[in-house]
Amino acid sequence: MKKTLGLAALAAILACGGANAQQVNVKIGVLTDMSSLYADIGGPGSVAAAKMAIADFTKDHPNVKVELINGDHQNKPDIGSQIANQWFDVDKVDLIIDTPNSGVALAVSQVASQKNKIFIVSGAAASDLTGPKCNANTIHWTYDTWMLANGTGTAIVKTGGDTWFFLTSDYAFGHALERDTMAAVEKAGGKVVGKVRHPLNTNDFSSFLLQAQSSKAKVIGLANAGGDTINSIKQAAEFGIVKGGQSLAGLLVFASDVAALGLPTAQGLVLTETWYWDMNDVNRAWTKRWQQERQGKFPTMIHAGVYAGITHYLKAAVALKGNVSDGKAVVAQMKSMPTDDPLFGKGTIRADGRKVHPAYLFEVKKPEESKYPGDFYKVRATIPADEAFRPLKEGNCPLVTG
Amino acid sequence: MAHDFVLAVPGHERNRLVMFEIFGIPSQALFGQLLIGLINGSFYALLSLGLAVIFGMLNIINFSHGAQYMMGAFAAYLILQHSGLGYWPALIIAPILVGITGIIIERLFLQWLYKLDHLYGLLLTFGLALIFEGVARNYFGSAGLPYTVPESLQGGRNLGFMFLPNYRAWVIVASLGVCFGTWFVIERTRLGAYLRAATENPTLVRAFGINVPRMITLTYGFGVALAAFAGVMAAPIYNVSPQMGSELIIVVFAVVVIGGMGSILGAIITGFGLGVIEGLTKVFFPEASNTVIFVIMAIVLLVRPAGLFGRRG
After folding, report:
1. pLDDT tens digits for range B216-226
2. ipTM score of complex
3. Does A240 contact B at CB distance below 8 Å?
4. C-alpha span between A248 and B157 (Å, rounded)
5. Can you tell me the distance from the alpha carbon of A63 to that of A318, in angstroms, rounded to the nearest whole number?
6. CATH second-level architecture of B27-134+156-303?
7. CATH number, domain A146-273+359-388, options 3.40.50.620, 3.40.50.2300, 3.60.110.10, 3.30.930.10
8. CB–CB contact A239 B33 (8 Å)
9. What is the pLDDT of residues A331-374, one digit of tens each?
10. What is the pTM of this model?
């Protein structure tokens, strides 16, 4: 009798719960490079951005409770998969976000698909994530190699740089970037005269730059990122590459790289990004808040992507009333809702998982044009959202072609 | 393959040097790569020299060598930021500062480990390296800091087969000088003789009235200063980042093992030699360029376990 009364009371209490807003409990993991060459473009800055997204959202939605953890994949796909597996299986993580390093991202994307959880890629670039390797559990935010190739590559060919030599990082990201840029260059009427692949995290590029010099190509395309790009550009200045008449195309350059190079060395570099801290007042205000946790640093578009991605995920979680265990259903929900966040504005997520938003062609300022710390870029052009990313039909994504 | 090539060609004729090909690579490109390899080899030689001195004299496997190289580069950056002193003063000041931290480490930690197995020294210095790297990354981030080539060494000259930056030429000259100077002091002077004797039989040498512990402390400090010197030399051309040492130190250890752990001359010659071999690999098979040294190390260890110039025991 007592038991029945107790159970009835419990049932009554639970039934009452439905009258208020549904309690939503989720756990998010930021999987990033904390200690190696991508730690400044992702790393602790991504964790800071995640915290801000959670704080902002839960302020307006007190029924949402989010637990945040982070992990270091050390740029190794096996470590990345192992952490992802553990997080999904043991630690009950619902969403993994960030992951600079395309090799790791591709591996984690497979894990998310197998476990039917969610993976939002902000840090990695390979366009294969929404191409042949796409799946219904992965969303690719921020940027990808096709967008970079189309932005920077096409712009440079149009200004006369029609012969290219590639310096490529020898792993998934470098190969993807080289492939997409080659296609963009050839489409715009240019020619690729040579390429060389270097191991990830190379210190010394003199040998490769020498090969690039003797190729006599007008443009040396740097299909690498982070410390590798910084070293390539620094040493190219040493070897008089630009003075000798060749120009450098930094296919993936972040504000943190420009800070590391210094404006005297980096000036004139043309690059494509989808978010810059100094573009408008909203970005500047956000950056000031972010800098409370990351003093002296400037946020990159990857950090902005983490903030925006988590915001959109939490909106979808609320719309689904907290039923987030089916990854495919949540991703479908995210694709059905248009996105709207302070950093990227209004946008959509396509069927192949690609988040689309405008891209911007920037040029690095000369030292005398820079008025305050972090004043790195001037905007050269805006590429509207429907042109910035690879057309849906051209991606060979099984979700689209069926 | 064309067999006619002209060596002693007057300056204005150099542009018309006839090219011949070796294994499909034009000779011009090859000579350029060999020179680049020599320049990289000089960094390897400088760093492996420090390691060889420390191991040969102290029997400590100094795994924090890469972090001390990084500290030298960071010291150069900080000296520039806080006192405005540029590259040339930093070449002297930074090694001294980092050398002093080395002496502190030796007095605080290492002196208790000499009688123990090598492994303890390795573990301690490895832990210290992680600490230094973590602290640097915490304060400065991982992207790196800007440091430019000094005015007097900017630019370069066109040698015909390649463009040689002045700074790189300076790197070869400076490291040859420092390497030869160190070898000379250790192998040919009285001080070096005391040092070598103290390593073999410290008790006996002490009995002669020589302050052995102080010599050992200063030797460790000198080895660390050598690493920091290499760091200052690297700052203008390599990215000054907290992980710059850990990327390099594994290769340098392979160099020292190939050359023979205790041999000073072995470290120098192997450093330059392996730089050249790595440079050639970058031409013929670039993807393997960061593994070729380890392949060679495996082969050498199979054939001559003590290393090419090493002494047994």
Report:
1. 899 999 999 99
2. 0.73
3. yes
4. 21
5. 9
6. Orthogonal Bundle (1.10)
7. 3.40.50.2300
8. no
9. 999 999 999 989 998 899 999 999 999 999 999 999 999 999 99
10. 0.80
